[in-house]
Amino acid sequence: MLKLEQVSKTYGNKSEKAVDNISFQVYPGEIFGFVGPNGAGKTTTIKMIVSLLAPNSGKIIINGIDNQKNILEAKKQFSYVPDNPELFEKIKGIEYLKFMADVYEVPVAERQQLIEKYLAVFEIKEAVNDPIGSYSHGMKQKLALVGALIHDPQLFVLDEPMVGLDPKASFELKKIMREHCDRGRSVFFSTHVLDVAEKICDRIAIIKKGKIIEVGTMAEIREKAGSQESLENIFLELTE
Ligand SMILES: Nc1ncnc2c1ncn2[C@@H]1O[C@H](COP(=O)(O)OP(=O)(O)O)[C@@H](O)[C@H]1O
Ligand SMILES: [Mg+2]
Questions:
Q1: Integer Cα distance of 33 and 198 in angstroms
Q2: Domain assignment present for 210
Q3: How far apart are CA 129 and CA 56, in angstroms?
Q4: Would residue 91 count as lying in a domain?
Q5: Going by CA atoms, what residue is nearest to atom 16 of ligand 1?
Q6: pTM above threshold 0.90
Q7: 1: containing domain
Q8: Residue 42 Cα, ligand 2 centroid: separation in angstroms?
Q9: Which DSSP symbol is given to 225?
Q10: Is residue 126 a part of any domain in this protein?
Q11: Ligand 1 neighbourhood includes 141 CB (under 6 angstroms)
Q12: Which CATH number do you get for residue 60?
């Protein structure tokens, strides 16, 4: 579903690489967590996956499509919610959702139903007729999630999705992520909240200073570390 091959990125003329020769794969049906401390290179990696940044070297294949060779086709395979969604402030929530549905060519009959469903799930139904500029940070994030969900992508890419969401919305999002993968699709998300990754991910990759230091299931990572402890302890040891 998603394959990174020896991907590197350096910003400007910095001497250190933000992302340093990373490779991993996300398979169909999988919730994959990208875990690491602040500044590790998670957002940089995600921006390369979604074609907001070009890698200096390496290859990114999304559902079989090279995202540097065929950017538009690659973009149709996923939807993306950034860590800090910047939405058009002057338009109404509902206008944004219709715009997203148009961009991704969601049939009118289908979109209505999906919009209703997700607005109810995230409890922002009352707000959709107000301008986005009047929304709180959490509401903007929920609206961005709804906009990303209505075209039912093969791959769902989320940067720190739980930050800023209330417990109910966070619970619902985790449920949606699971359902998405149960239909053979995939979720790739970053987090520095380790408990979340430990509870919901099928596999994780741990990134530190731009390098991937572990990839696998929790059980595999525990076994390698020779420990039954929580991911948090292992993570602290690995990133020390
Ligand atoms: N636009 C940028 N210009 C220069 N350096 C950047 C930029 N964005 C991120 N960095 C640097 O790249 C490294 C990785 O950052 P980032 O990918 O945001 O990490 P994370 O998302 O894991 O917190 C950090 O050292 C950060 O300071
Ligand atoms: Mg980040």
A1: 9
A2: yes
A3: 43
A4: no
A5: 41
A6: yes
A7: 1-77+184-190+201-240
A8: 5
A9: H
A10: no
A11: no
A12: 3.40.50.300
Angle (deg, nearest 10), helices 218-225 and 231-239: 50
Q: Is there a contact between 177 and 31 (Cβ–Cβ < 8 Å)? A: yes
Structure tokens at 89: 């402030």
- 3-class DSSP state for residue 238? helix
Q: What φ, ψ does residue 79 adopt, rounded to 5°?
A: -125, 160
Name the domain count of the chain. Answer: 1
83 falls within a domain: no
Residue with tokens 């998300």: 189
Which ligand 1 atom lies nearest to the CA of residue 40? 22
Ligand 1 atom 27, closest CA? 39
Tens of each residue's pLDDT in the chain, 240 residues: 999 999 999 999 999 999 999 999 999 999 999 999 899 999 999 999 999 999 999 999 999 999 999 999 999 999 999 998 888 899 999 999 999 999 999 999 899 999 999 999 999 999 999 999 999 999 999 999 999 999 889 999 999 998 889 999 999 999 999 999 999 999 999 998 778 888 899 999 999 999 999 999 988 888 887 766 777 777 777 766
Q: From the CA atom positions of the chain, what is the Rg in Å? A: 18
